[in-house]
Structures are given as C-alpha cells and as structure tokens.
Amino acid sequence: MRLRRLALPARTVRLRFTALYGVLFLLSGAALLVITNLVSLGSTRISEVAPTGDLLAQNSSLAAAHERISLLEGQLAGARETQSHQLLVGSAVALAVMALVSIVLGRIIAGRVLRPLRTITAATRRISADNLHERLAVPGPADEVKDLADTIDELLERLESSFAAQRRFVANASHELRTPLATMRASLDVAVAKPEPVPPQTVALADRLRTELDQVDRLLEGFLVLARTQHGALSDRARISLGHTVSAALEARAADIVAKGLTVHSDDLSDSAWTRGSRTLLSRMADNVIDNAITHNHEGGWIRVAATLDGESALLVVETGGRVLDQEQVARLAQPFQRLGADRTGSGDGSGLGLSIVAAIASAHGGGLDLQARPEGGLRVAITLPPVAARAGVPA
C-alpha cells in the first residue's frame, strides 16, 4: 500500500485547480445539453399534433382519413425515435468532448493563474547566501501575488543585512585579535631573550605558548579568508591554470613531502584546465588541498594529483591513500570545524577550516567541492570550476 501511494502523482495546486475548473466547465456543458434536449423534445411534441387537422380537411372519407392518420402517426413515431436516438448519441459524444475540453481548459486557466507564483518560486530558488542582493521585483497590479513578492523581497533584504553584519563581525574581530596576539608573541620573545639564564620550564612553556599562538593566528587567517570569500566580489580576476597552481603548491611543500616520505603521482598537470578567478584565493585553495593531503597522510604514503577538463568543468582532483573512511563523516568535512578524528589531525593547523575554505572559494567562483571516501582507503577531493579557453602568452 505504501508503494502504491508513492506512485500516485503529487496533489499540486495546479492539479486541484484543474479538477475544479474542469468540473465547472463540465457541469456547464452538461446543463447546456439538458436544456437543448428539453427544447428539442418540446418542439417534437408540438409537431406531432400539427398535421392532424390538415389531414382531416383534405380527405373526404373518414376511413381513408383514419388510415392516413395511422400511417403518418407510425412514420412520426419512427422519426421521433430516430431523432431521440441521434440526439442521445450526439449528447453523449458532446459530453465526452466537453469533458476533454474542460480538462484542457481547466489546466490552461490553472497554469495562467499560477504563473506568477511559479515565477516567484523559480526566482526564490535562484537566490542563495551568495546572491542575497538579488530581488524578485515582480511587476503588475497591487494584488495578493504582488504583496507576496514584496514580502519576500523585504525578507531577502533583512537576510542580506544579517549576513553582511555577520561577515563584517568575523572580519573585524579577526583583525582586532591580531594585535594582542602579536603583543603576546613579542612579550614571550623578550622574556626568553633576557641575559640571565632562563629556567628550562620557562623555555618549554614559551615554546608551547608560541605553538598555540601560531594555531590561533592560522585560525584567524582562516576566518579572514572565509569572510572575504563569502563577501562576494573578487577583485583580482584573471585566467588561471589549475595545473600550474597546484604544481606551485606542491613545490612550496616539497620539504614536507620528503620529510614524510610521500610519493607524488602527477597524472596530468598540463595547461588543459584553465579557469577565471582570483589568483590569491585559487592559490589558497590549492595550498589547502595539498596541505590536507600531506597532513592527513601516513608515513610513506602517496598523493595523486590531476588537473583536467571534464565535460563542462575544469577539474582538479587530489587523492590520498590511508584507512577506509566513513562517507557520512567525509561529507561533513566541507563544513567549518569538522574533522575525522584525532588520528587524522596530524601536526598541521588542525583548525578544521581547511576544506571549508576550499568549498567557499570554489562556490565563490561558480564551482563546487566533492569529497569521497575511496573504497580501498583514503580520500578523494574533487574541485570543479567553470572552464575558460587558454590563450597563448597568458601567464598562469
């Protein structure tokens, strides 16, 4: 029974309107046919008695008149029966045609009535956290539909203000916190650098505090990048080669790769995958992906990198080996402060913002991030971006 219910069509407003208008049209057509039949039957009864007086006047013999009348009455009864049958068949055909026409007209009228609502729904679906500045701006008279569209526009305006205030707060707080962090780091350096001998416990505590301060500094930097990425406009847009960008990220981390004994497989880092965007943000995106691949990898592991064109997208894929991961947990890594556990935290920043920054940068450029747990173990990070054609002489 449950499967049968799931197979039924959804009871949409248009379907209900179509049924309502169809029934109204069908009832109107049926009423018109009934009235037509009543009028036709009435006129037939009148025509039955009309010839009688004329026939009696034209025949000189009463017997001949009766015979003539009986003959005409039989012919008239047959004609009336034939007419009634034809009228019944015609009415049935007309009713069937009217039922079909009623459904078609009901659907058309329901579609015209609901067209403004469909326009509002489609426009609302296009608006997300990245384009809250857009408005429905539905034209037309001041009716219920216009009031609904104006109400949604007012809601979007309040949401835009709220999101902007949140992003400004994150950016301003991150900037303001950098000053006390720098002061604390300088105070530690001054305390450790005094001429008199410093107790080993103090040196160890200072090193631990520096590590924590660096961690907080990286966390604030991540907040700043997220706030800038989600704010919207990208000022330094240019043609970027994904292959060159990820190659630069690998070269910058060559020492870390060697220290961990990792093997890098570069399937395809040619100039085929180009996109348009912010050089700074796309470089940060590649850095975060490579950092994640190095940090959350085991000693002597491997990294596979590819930058290609995949249909309508420029594709950057970074894969790593390791233990088998849970796909549900992997899917949450694109959200801030999500991790897979202490065994994958490693010695990196461990802030839980790395892949969320990657997702935000990809989204700001019109792309997306796909995280998949490899069946044989490890993680596959795939970034899709809108492609552009590479031009000769354009630097990466």
UniProtKB/TrEMBL annotation:
- Domain Histidine kinase: where? 172-389
Supply the name of the protein: histidine kinase
Keyword list, A-Z: Kinase, Membrane, Phosphoprotein, Transferase, Transmembrane, Transmembrane helix, Two-component regulatory system
Tell me yes or no: is Oxidoreductase among this UniProt entry's keywords: no
One Pfam family per UniProt? HAMP
The protein's annotated catalytic reaction(s) are: ATP + protein L-histidine = ADP + protein N-phospho-L-histidine
The cross-references to SMART domains, in alphabetical order and at most eight, read: HAMP, HATPase_c, HisKA
Q: Which PROSITE patterns match?
A: HAMP, HIS_KIN
User: What EC designation does it have?
Assistant: 2.7.13.3
Which SUPFAM superfamilies does the entry mention? Answer: ATPase domain of HSP90 chaperone/DNA topoisomerase II/histidine kinase (SSF55874), HAMP domain-like (SSF158472), Homodimeric domain of signal transducing histidine kinase (SSF47384)
Q: Where in the cell is it found?
A: Cell membrane
- Taking every annotated instance into account, which residue ranges of this chain make up the domain HAMP? 111-164
Q: Does the keyword Transferase apply?
A: yes
> Where does the chain cross the membrane?
20-39, 87-110
Instruction: Please give the Gene Ontology molecular function terms for this protein.
Output: kinase activity
